[in-house]
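Translate structure to sequence.
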């Protein structure tokens, strides 16, 4: 007998958040620059889409400063954080620091697009936006990777069940 769809109930934001905390992700900083302003934010909504052509996506909440800069510049950078960069992740997350210069005192560099990338990360992508799609409170930016780099093989910073985790060997 085929399964019957259950009656839909209204799922609250908190109920969904409670379930999604069980999806383990890497931690990255998505960044952009435009008109002399640079900003970045901690995200786990980054996804690799295709190797040929090299495509990725990221979903950014429309009210964030980073979203505005990505939208204006048509580009973004991604820094994959190392296990030792928990403080960097925390610095780049949260609305309390939305208007502050999150890069103050940190070393950053650029590749092709001028998007700031954090030194000390595991790897970096420099991306040019190819498509934008509105999805609820967010915009999903699809982008072509135009430059990439990595250094070493340190353990990554991971996030699971509302906390940072380490890989076990």
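Result:
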């Amino acid at each position: 007998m085929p399964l019957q769809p259950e009656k839909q109930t209204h799922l609250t934001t908190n109920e969904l958040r409670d379930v999604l905390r069980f999806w383990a992700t890497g931690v990255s900083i998505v960044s952009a620059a435009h008109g002399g302003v640079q900003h970045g934010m901690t995200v786990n909504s980054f996804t690799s889409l295709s190797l040929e052509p090299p495509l990725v996506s990221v979903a950014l909440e429309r009210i964030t400063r980073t979203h505005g800069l990505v939208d204006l510049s048509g580009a973004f950078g991604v820094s994959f954080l190392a296990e030792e960069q928990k403080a960097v992740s925390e610095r780049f997350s949260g609305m309390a620091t939305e208007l502050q210069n999150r890069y103050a005192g940190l070393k950053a560099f650029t590749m092709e697009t001028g998007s700031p990338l954090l030194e000390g990360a595991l790897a970096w992508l420099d991306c040019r936006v190819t498509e934008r799609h509105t999805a609820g409170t967010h915009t999903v930016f699809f982008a072509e990777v135009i430059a990439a780099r990595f250094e070493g093989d340190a353990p990554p910073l991971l996030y699971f069940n509302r906390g940072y985790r380490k890989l076990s060997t």
